[in-house]
Amino acid sequence: MASLNVGNLGEFLREQRRNAQLSLRQLADAAGVSNPYLSQIERGLRKPSADILQQLAKALRISAETLYVQAGILDERKVDGVEVHTAILTDPALTEKQKQVLLQIYESFRKENGHGSGRGESGGAQAHEPAPDAREADGGPHAT
């Protein structure tokens, strides 16, 4: 018998595929998996790897983290900031250099606001956060 998480994942994938108005074969082709394998995933008979989930998410134009949570790979509470990283890294319209620059800017803003590197770091960050006037006076995050 398939586990409950895999079944929920399959139902969720089927719903997302239908919302995207894709046939099983179209999604399988777009994600680079076989039609029977995708069918087994949707029916809760197979548990796909994180790589396959990422390919499916890209083909469905949804967040891979959403599928990771559905599959039980990622705890929903630990997604803080991860979706932004994935959106940047999987955007085909961006060059590798643009992706790296965007990630650096994003991380600098998170650190400035006391959120660390997407892992919920908060040890004393609130006391370190400057007042809004201080941020403007020092030139902001882009000052050198």
Query: What is the alpha-carbon Rg in Å?
Result: 19 Å
The CATH architecture term of the largest domain is: Orthogonal Bundle
Mean pLDDT: 77
Low-confidence stretches: 1-5, 118-139
Number-wise, the strands total: 0
Order of helices and strands: HHHHHHHHH
What name goes with the CATH superfamily of the largest domain? lambda repressor-like DNA-binding domains
The name of the CATH topology of the largest domain is: 434 Repressor (Amino-terminal Domain)
Question: In brief, what are we looking at here?
Answer:
With 144 residues, this protein is mainly α. It has 2 domains: 4-75, 434 Repressor (Amino-terminal Domain); 82-137, no CATH class.
Q: What can you see in these coordinates?
A:
This protein has 144 residues and is an all-alpha fold. 60% of the residues lie in helices and 0% in strands. The chain has nine helices and no strands. The chain has helices at 4-19, 24-31, 35-42, 50-60, 64-71, 82-89, 96-112, 125-128, 132-137. α2 (24-31) packs across α3, α2 (24-31) crosses α4 and α4 packs across α5. The radius of gyration is 19 Å and the shape is elongated.
Keywords:
single chain, 144 residues, mainly alpha, 434 Repressor (Amino-terminal Domain), 2 domains, 9 helices, 60% helix, disordered N terminus
Question: How are the elements arranged and paired?
Answer:
Blueprint: H1 4-19, H2 24-31, H3 35-42, H4 50-60, H5 64-71, H6 82-89, H7 96-112, H8 125-128, H9 132-137
Helix pairs in contact: 2-3, 2-4, 4-5
